[in-house]
Amino acid sequence: MIKNIAVIRGDGIGPEIVAQTLRVLDRTAELYGHTFNYTDVDMGGCALDKYGDPLPESELKKCIASDSVLLGAVGGNKWNSVPADKRPEKGLLRLRAGMEVYSNNRPAKIWRQLADASPLKREIVDKGIDFIIVRELTGGIYFGEHRTENGNATDILRYSEKEIERIGRIGFETARKRRKRLCSVEKSNVLDSSRLWKKIMHSLAEEYPDVELSDMLVDNCAMQIVKEPSQFDVIVTENMFGDILSDEASMITGSIGMIPSSSLGAGTRGLYEPIHGSAPDIAGTDTANPVGTILSAAMMLRYSFDMKKEADSIERAVSEYLDCGYRTADIMSSGMKPVGCCQCGELITGFLR
Known about the structure:
The chain folds into 2 domains: 1-102 and 258-353, Isopropylmalate Dehydrogenase (3-Layer(aba) Sandwich); 119-252, Isopropylmalate Dehydrogenase (3-Layer(aba) Sandwich), CATH 3.40.718. Helices cover 41% and strands 21% of the residues. It is built from 12 helices and 14 strands.
């Protein structure tokens, strides 16, 4: 099978973690008889330096023409002083809108080898942490009107029934493939947008009688994620709430460097990236953890390319790597074997079979 992948190496540690991920993908293609063609795309701070634009239209078109997009990370302190509409992160928002991806799916799963790295008590961790946050990606307050005038600032949070329904279906369909429990998270005791959200979710529930739907206010959900994470299977929520909750969920698993994510729309083409940032303070030091990006590539194979066996192989290789005691600096603990970014990629590639 031939697949065309747009590759955004990005800023900071992005080029380093992407390089190791491509090494893993190349070996996977070799083992299973596939061909992965890569097209480099400039986005973020590097594109701003090169073109004066964080995502030129020509670069966006490369992504739209691809079968899927692999992204490292964008941004950094270097570009903090540029105008808001030119910030590297604006390129990412435009990429999501241009690709028409509206569902960001972030698994929060603790690897058994990293149970001691979780900040939670062991008795909580031992109950199990394995859930997915389905975050609406192109609506809400991030995409509403922003205005500052006369000493007042306003940000508009707006959702339509259509936007809520389509992300709700992703939530129900995801739960149907897992343990059939969906928790809808909102703030319906305060916000009109959340009351509409709750109404639409309960309307959809009639079409999914095999999925158990529950409601939870976002502040309570933030507490429950650290108190009893085992209660969750799939969480579906709006953009800003999902942004915050998914970062919280990633930390209870032991390291933000281990967590992949996918952004999907109506078709099979997706945007795949680790959830961590560009970490410019460690860029070029060969200390970054590429596992989150490698696992994002595995998600790409599974969800966009229908390559389940190939994805399983990558995830097994990561598990064997952890079994052997190898650790990058972010998840290092006593008695483990320290490795850098390049060696991590080399080892995981070696475990592929």
